[in-house]
Design a protein that fits this description.
five-stranded mixed beta sheet; 10 strands; rod-shaped; alpha+beta; Heat Shock Protein 90; 3 domains; five-stranded antiparallel beta sheet; Beta-Lactamase
């Protein structure tokens, strides 16, 4: 159908009147794809007001989009199928705007292809919003990546600090055991021999030597205990269950706090990092109970089940107000939180005045990234 025959059609005149009354940009083509009609809003947008067909050079597509857009339309025309395309179109003031062009085939009552009827939508605002959203998304992703990188660096720094701390603990423990403790032992033996030699010369001197011998023996025992706490050999060679049993027993004897330990599960293959974390947190929690809880009993539960480690240290002491305590977290709590975080675990502390305190740790074994501290379990 050519332009003249289209314009001669009375029904088309009615359509044109309706098309001009709508703010949408409407257009039609001939069977060969050439323009046969544009409504007034589209003519005004293109800067060709008063025209009902496109003058030559009126429909200018952005050079970066033109080849693709025209090839897309030609491919749809060849198959006589619906057409959709987004491209930048020059408007009346010379500025390019993003538009969405959509068209469907027109057919006669007998099914004959008559051309396309289409609509053009100005989507510049949507494209601008998409660009702004994309820019914001890219910025957020950069920020997220920077934060993740910073968190990894902080985690790595924390791991290195704890590693250095444990290595220093191990070194000091060896020095205490191999040097200081042996010197004190030799001095204790010398005083004992001296006491025997001077017993014949004076009872007072012998009693003084005995008192010195007892003090040195006590000092030697304290150094051995300190060495054990700094570098728990049982943790390295016997595992976390045996190490905790040994520590709880020794702590009970020294502090007067009755510590009951319950262990459930197999702990032979627990990673060194997780074992060390459980041991150090138990140390810190029991020392806090002995200092602050005003009780003579504490309970320690260690459980392994379904690839998870659970540690609970609890007491029925005086407890504390968590809201007030949170504002002044001590180094002990921060150290526990840091250690648990390094093995991707979760730390929870429950307490209320008069109802005691419970420290809970959950460590999923599958999430632990292996790292060495000292030799193995140092």
């Amino acid at each position: 159908m050519d332009v003249q025959s289209v314009e001669a059609d009375q029904s088309f005149k009615s359509f044109r009147a309706l098309a001009n009354a709508t703010p949408a940009f409407l257009w039609m083509t001939t069977t060969t794809g050439e323009n046969a009609f544009i409504n007034e809003p589209l003519a005004d947008f293109l800067g060709v007001s008063g025209h009902y067909t496109l003058p030559d050079g009126a429909y200018v597509i952005h050079p970066d989009d033109e080849s693709r857009a025209r090839q897309n339309f030609a491919a749809c025309l060849a198959k006589r199928i619906a057409h959709t395309d987004e491209h930048r179109l020059r408007r009346f003031d010379g500025q390019f705007c993003w538009v969405l062009a959509k068209a469907v085939p027109r057919t006669s009552p007998t099914g004959e292809f008559l051309g396309y009827s289409g609509v053009i939508l100005n989507i510049s605002d949507r494209k601008q919003a998409e660009d702004e959203l994309r820019t914001a998304y890219n910025w957020l992703m950069r920020e997220l990546n920077e934060r993740i990188k910073a968190e990894h660096e902080i985690c790595d720094l924390g791991q290195r600090l704890i590693t250095a701390q444990e290595e220093e603990r191990s070194r000091i423990a060896r020095e205490l055991h191999d040097d200081v403790s042996q010197q004190i032992g030799a001095l204790s033996l010398a005083l004992s021999n001296l006491k025997v030699r001077i017993e014949a010369d004076g009872r007072g001197a012998a009693e003084q030597a005995e008192r010195l011998h007892q003090k040195i023996s006590q000092l030697s025992a304290s150094i051995r205990q300190l060495s054990h706490e700094l570098h728990p050999a049982s943790l390295e060679y016997a595992g976390i269950a045996v190490a905790l049993r040994s520590y709880c027993g020794e702590f009970s004897a020294l502090s007067g706090l009755k510590v009951s330990l319950q262990v459930s599960g197999d702990f032979e293959d627990v990673p060194p990092a997780a074992a060390l974390c459980l041991y150090r947190v138990t140390q810190e929690a029991l020392q806090n109970i002995a200092k602050h809880a005003a009780t003579n009993q504490a309970e320690v539960h260690l459980v392994r089940t379904n690839g998870n480690l659970y540690l609970t240290v609890s007491d029925r002491g005086i407890g504390f107000d968590k809201q007030r305590a949170r504002a002044s977290e001590g180094l002990g709590f921060l150290s526990m939180k840091e250690r648990v975080g390094l093995v991707k675990g979760a730390l929870e502390i429950e307490s209320e005045p008069g109802l005691g305190t419970t420290v809970r740790i959950h460590i999923p074994l599958a999430s632990i990234v292996p790292f060495l501290i000292g030799n193995s379990h140092s």
